[in-house]
Amino acid sequence: MGRVRTPATADGTLLPTFKEDGNLLLPDGSIHISQIYPDGGSDSVTNIPYLVFMVNGTKGAYSGHGELVMMIEYDNDGTVFGDGSRKKLRRLRLVKGDYTQLLDEKPDDFLMDAQMSDIPENGVLDKIFIFRNNPLNLVNRTLTRKPRYH
Questions:
Q1: Is there a single domain that holds both residue 95 and residue 113?
Q2: Residue 128 has what pLDDT?
């Protein structure tokens, strides 16, 4: 990602502004994203929790879909998506159409380092389970996600 920062005005009426562009090269195509936004963070660390980037170029499997945005969520201290041992974590989500329902997700929508014993007997999950350090061994079980949006 390329980032250009314009400093705040001397009188403080305007925050520093960033312009970011990025190219994601994926096995089945590529995506170009771009956004301009105010941010009081430093040159390398943002202080906003997420940003929605406009997708303004696609190739391969991503071409012709229209209305695509890339939501990037920032976790600078590593405690939202992890245990704090890794810093400056990012989660990127490519979304077609309305992305606003993603804004309702809270950090407690994730269970980091899940274990098999955390999975409810009925197999209906009410959060995202991340088996980072533990094996996921499913035999003759079906897991579904509890509906959240109506």
A1: no
A2: 75
pLDDT of 134 reads 80
Q: Which two tokens stand for residue 94?
A: 């490519």
Contact 129, 98 (CB under 8 A): no
Q: Centre a 10 Å sphere on the Cβ of residue 53 and count the other Cβ atoms it contains.
A: 22
- Alpha-carbon distance 99 to 95, whole Å? 6
For the segment 34-85, what is each residue's pLDDT rounded down to a tens digit?
998 888 766 667 777 888 888 999 999 989 887 888 888 888 888 877 787 8
Encoding tokens for residue 34? 């771009």
Q: Please state the φ and ψ torsions of residue 19, each to the nearest 5 degrees.
A: -120, 120
pTM of the shown model: 0.61
- Those residues whose C-beta lies under 8 Å from the C-beta of residue 45, and which sit 6 or more positions away, are 76, 88
**Based on the structure, what is the number of domains in the chain?**
2
39 plus 89 within the same structural domain: yes
User: Token digits for 104?
Assistant: 């309702």
Q: 36: helix, coil or strand?
A: strand
The span from the CA of 97 to the CA of 66, in Å, is: 8
Whole domain around residue 139: which residue ranges? Answer: 105-150
| Residues 131, 89 within the same domain | no
